[in-house]
Automatic annotation (TrEMBL):
SUPFAM superfamilies: RmlC-like cupins. Belongs to the mannose-6-phosphate isomerase type 1 family. Its cofactor is Zn(2+). It comes from the Bacteria. Keywords: Isomerase, Metal-binding, Zinc. This is Mannose-6-phosphate isomerase. Zn(2+) binds at residues 98, 116, 173. One of its GO terms (biological process) is carbohydrate metabolic process. It catalyses: D-mannose 6-phosphate = D-fructose 6-phosphate.
Length: 318
């Protein structure tokens, strides 16, 4: 039986709005000074991670999902369901919206729409995100979009490190400049741009917008989802539940010492934001550090953590 963590090699994505913070904060070997995304835990076809340890070293997370489903509690589905990223927005991201599962299947031919959530790792002073809009009806939304009334339409919110936002499909949103976040989402790469500040892409043209589909899928009126952050301390490990919803449950873990035995009911995705430590399984130690991404497979009955580190963890709710 597979009795060790599955460590993954990150995949990087260059973006027009990206920068160098992924290197500065996590010592990643980024491909350029416009690196916007680290795909830390991904089975998506646009960037599946390679496994770097154990008997599956050299295989992709997709390989493990397709051929060793016992590692994932024999969960159903053709694709690994979640995608965990770290984003660096040196510049504003486009204002965008994502479809739900039904629209993604019927219009895009994809299995998943995109519901996501954000944990703010770091940001500059006075940083903002766009989260929602002020239109009261679909007609008002359409009119404001078509007339470019962005200042009146878009809802801006200041952010600081440690903030958390749950972003269901249908929510107009954008990460502002100077922010680094960890994003947990459905395994989807479908994005509809609503507005992009008239930026010019690599081809010398304004980047494509997707107004018809954006208007199709946007929730009107906008309503903030309720987020209740519950936390408790247990033997050196503080657990804080950030969200539990249809697709995923996400926690923030703060490790200071040694945890009690942990007994996962499913497989657990772990991304290390700060510090370092050790996972112990059957008396064998596996070291981790800031910037690492790994999975505790469902075949592990129990494990402990020791060290000092802060982590974002998640699991699928399929």
């Amino acid at each position: 039986m597979y009795q060790e963590p599955i460590f993954l090699s990150p995949e990087f994505k260059e973006r027009i709005w990206g920068g160098t913070k992924l290197k500065e904060l996590f010592q990643y070997d980024i491909p350029s000074n416009e690196t916007g995304e680290c795909w830390g835990i991904s089975g998506h076809a646009n960037g599946p991670n390679k496994i770097i340890n154990g008997p599956l070293a050299g295989k992709t997370l997709n390989d493990a999902w397709n051929k060793h489903r016992e590692l994932f509690a024999n969960e159903q589905g053709d694709e690994f369901p979640l995608l965990v990223k770290i984003l660096d927005s040196k510049k504003d991201l486009s204002v965008q919206v994502h479809p739900n599962d039904t629209y993604a299947r019927e219009v895009e031919g994809e299995n998943y729409g995109k519901t996501e959530c954000w944990y703010v790792i770091d940001c500059e002073e006075e940083s903002e995100i766009i989260f929602g809009h002020h239109a009261k009806s679909k007609d008002e939304l359409t009119s404001m979009v078509n007339n470019g009334q962005w200042a009146q339409l878009l809802r801006r919110i200041p952010v600081q490190p440690g903030d958390f936002f749950y972003v269901p499909s249908g929510t107009i949103h954008a990460i502002g400049e100077g922010i680094q976040i960890l994003e947990t989402q459905q395994s989807s790469d479908i994005t509809y741009r609503v507005y992009d500040y008239d930026r010019i892409g690599a081809d010398g043209q304004k980047r494509e917008l997707h107004l018809d589909r954006s208007l199709d899928v946007t929730t009107v009126p906008h309503k903030d989802p309720e987020v209740v952050r519950d936390s408790y301390l247990e033997a050196g490990l503080r657990f804080e539940k950030l969200v539990e919803e249809k697709y995923f449950t996400v926690h923030h873990w703060d490790l200071d010492g040694k945890s009690n035995e942990l007994h996962p009911d499913k497989y657990t995705l772990i991304s290390v934001l700060t510090g370092e430590g050790v996972v112990t399984i059957d008396t064998k130690d596996y070291s981790f550090k800031k910037g690492d991404h790994f999975i505790i497979p469902a075949t592990v009955n129990n494990y402990t953590l020791s060290g000092r580190a802060k982590m974002i963890t998640s699991r699928s709710n399929k």
